[in-house]
Amino acid sequence: MSITINNYSFTPVAYNIAEENNIPFEVGIATLTIIPNEGYTATASDFSIDPSFYNQYVSTVTFTQSGLNVICNVTFLPDATMPSSNVTIPLCVVGEGNVNALPISGTFTANVNAGVIGNGAETDTPYSASGLEGTEVSLFTRSYSAPSGMFIASSAPQMVVGNQSNYTFETTNTFDALGNITTISYDFKYLFPGVGVSGDKINIKGINVYALRLPQPSEVTGYSTLPVFMQFSGGNFSWNVFGVDGASFSASMTDGVDTVTIATNAIIGTGGVSTQTIEFPTYSGATHKDWTLTLTGDLQSPFSQANPATIRQYAANVTTLTASSANGIVGFTPILSTLPALQQYATPMVYPVSWNLSVPAGTIISERQPIVYDVTEVISIFAGADGSQSNVSSLNINNLVALYGSLQVGDRFNVNAPLTTFGQAPFPYEVTAVNSSTNISVSPNITVTDEDGLRFYRTNGTAFSLTNATFTQVDNQNITLDFNLETSATGDVSTTLTLDLDNIISFAPAVSCSATIPSGGVGVTDNSVALDPAGGIVCFLVDPIGVPDKFEIIHGNANGTKVATSGMNTTGNSGPFDNTFGTESTNVVPSVIEATNTLQFIGTDKDPIDTRQTEFNTATGETIATMQPGGTGVIYKQVLWWEYTAADYVTNSNATFRATGPTGTGWNALRVCFP
After folding, report:
1. Alpha carbon distance 423, 412 (integer Å)
2. Burial grade of 214 (CB within 10 A; 0-12, 13-18, 19 or more)
3. What pLDDT is attached to residue 5?
């Protein structure tokens, strides 16, 4: 089990050494790997063994760098000998992981027209910086000025790619005596979240200079950057409107039903700005709504910024974890995680889950711990654009790779998203139809170039993991599953995640008296028999139909005790048992040749099969009168039985009928019951 201390983790190592054997000869040098926690680095020179450390078996302890990790090497004394009891060597390590600076990188584009003084036009000028989570840095600055006798106007900086909430675009304007802007300076700042980011894009669409006009009535010339989106909780947002002293304006926003008044006949002050408060109400809807903000009054014509402007307000993001089972497993209660939309969490939000799972008939047993790909909505699908396509609703694709899942209507995707935003919402496009393996319908219309990369998602941006899973077998029909749902990111739409229990829990259906069992084909097929508290006989007639098959009765679940087996011998059915093929926990499937060469596999392709009717009658006192019961036309080849007691029932109240067959097999089985 991994141990975490001092911002790093390591896993203890253990060795099995016979008593009086030389430890360094058996082990060599023992190594432990020190792994830094996310957001930290581990450096070998920062680690040492405490000077007071002493152990009778240890010679030296050294630390070496291995990539991002540190290897702790323990060298044993040459004559160190294993005693008769276990030895635990606790290492007193001095050192810790250091905080790792997070990177930010992106590009800046500015459309600067002729005549502007200062920084000129730019296209994808790179910027980068690094810092610690929660700190703010200045990425770069730009300044643009108008020549004498002119003034300058600029569109506000816009995030083309990236999370607007991490950025601050500080604008400083210089005015002439008439209130005209002569210089615009931008300071682009960045607040580091909990993860590194790359591939962001910042654009300024237009910066231009104009000839000074004769004194005219005061005008509103622009406004400060509006939020890209708002959370469901709403809140107050401080907003600046710029212009010439004395200009009047009004502002309001509406969602089509409700209207929020921001300002009525407000006046630009002597500083060229009027500060207003936008009050966003709480949104209790299911998805999102769009606020349309409109500015009126003494507006400059043409007005350089969007008017009206749109601000999207998202609903609370509800991630629901439920489960499904085609085998009738019940007992799972949906778990809800309610968080703000479009959030990233350096430390995941943890939701404990405890499900008491059961089946009304048959038996269940845990197979393995759940993983994210056991959730039906988790997909891994990639494709490329097949040629350049402009403003199309039907998109040609190629190189489709569906590692998990297949394309479905409703899948959402992005184009050329950087790996740092893998799976993050919002997604600009949605699949509206899957027309073929090389063509899909999408909304809205899309423009792509040849081999643009497409990544498809079904979780709407929810990033999660399933951790610390444990199974507790209560009885044959009941299992308790405990685990944690850990949410590290939320999407823009509430999402239901469905854990497929059949992937992690095996189910053996109950077989009743006089019931036939259809062939399960290649591999292992299990069926369950409920035992009688007073004792009794579990009996099956089996027919391998040519290709050899093995039939077994197991007391308990599939990993219980084998009590009966088919076989080509005539010495009864209580062994010897084949524990190579079709045996928990490996469940190896034999080839036809291997099945043919294994005594416990019977088939008409082998020698004649003894029915074991005589052995059964002698052992149980009951009679199998015919191997063709009921005139069904099936002639069964062998009797398989187990006579059990009341004490056996107390040990485990269930038995498992297991059939194992190779490729090409087919078989019949009939349960026979006695009064």
Report:
1. 10
2. exposed
3. 86
Whether this model's pTM surpasses 0.85: no
Which candidate, 129, 553, 504, places its Cα nearest to that of 332? 504
Please answer whether residues 450 and 473 qualify as being in contact, where contact means their C-beta atoms are separated by less than 8 angstroms: no
Q: What is the CATH number of domain 3-99?
A: 2.60.40
Q: What is the DSSP string of 147-194?
A: PTTEEEEEPPPEEEES-GGGEEEEEEEEE-TTS-EEEEEEEEEEE--S
pLDDT digits (tens, 9 = 90+) for 133-155: 888 999 999 999 999 888 888 88
Task: Judge whether 230 and 177 are in contact, CB under 8 Å.
Answer: no
pLDDT per residue as tens digits for the range 263-313: 999 999 988 999 999 999 999 888 899 999 999 999 999 999 999 999 999
Single-letter amino acid, residue 475 = D
What region does 630 belong to: left with phi over 0, alpha with psi -120 to 50, or beta? left
- Which residues, 6+ apart, have CB-to-CB distance to 506 below 8 Å? 364, 365, 366, 367, 526, 558
pLDDT band at 132 (very low <50, low <70, confident <90, very high): confident
Tokens (6 digits) for 536: 């009794």
* Sheet containing 58-66: order of strands: 3-5, 8-10, 29-36, 69-76, 58-66
Q: What is the pLDDT of residue 661?
A: 95
> 10 Å Cβ neighbour count for 134?
10
* Terminal C-alpha separation, the chain: 53
SS3 (DSSP) at 387: coil
* The pair of three-digit structure tokens given for residue 332, joined into one six-digit string: 């799972």
Does the domain at 102-314 match CATH 3.40.50.1100? Answer given as no
Residue with tokens 């959402």, as numbered in its chain:
412
Q: What is the CA radius of gyration of the chain?
A: 36
Three-state helix/strand/coil letters over 615-657: HHHHHHCCCCCCCCHHHCCCCCCEEEEEEECHHHHHHCCEEEE
Tokens (6 digits) for 181: 């802007």
Concatenate the DSSP letters of all residues of 228-268 into one string. Answer: SEE-TT-EEEEEEEEESTT-EEEEEEE-SS-EEEEEEEEE-
Contact, 315 vs 233, CB < 8 A? no
Neighbours of 42 (CB within 10 A): 28
Q: Which residues contact 552 (CB under 8 A, 6 or more apart)?
A: 562, 564, 565, 566, 577, 582, 600, 640, 657, 658, 659, 660
Q: For the stretch 81-97, what's the b/e string if a residue is b when 16 or more beta carbons lie within 10 angstroms of its beta carbon?
A: ebeeeeeeeebebebeb
Task: Report the largest interatomic distance among the alpha carbons of the chain, rounded to a whole angstrom.
Answer: 120
Q: Residues 528-564: pLDDT tens digits?
A: 999 999 999 999 999 999 899 999 999 999 999 999 9
**Bridge partners, 153 (sequence order):** 208
Residue 38's CB is within 10 A of a number of other CB atoms, namely 11
- Distances in Å between the alpha carbon of 545 and those of 107, 159, 446, 656? 70, 69, 58, 22
Q: If you ran DSSP here, which 8-state letter would residue 27 be given?
A: H
| C-alpha dihedral, 551 to 556 to 561 to 566, nearest 10° | -10
In degrees and rounded to multiples of 5, residue 420 shows phi and psi of -65, -20
Amino acid symbol at 620: T
Residue 435 parent element (H or E): strand 429-436
Residue in 163, 156, 161 with CA at minimum distance from that of residue 142: 156
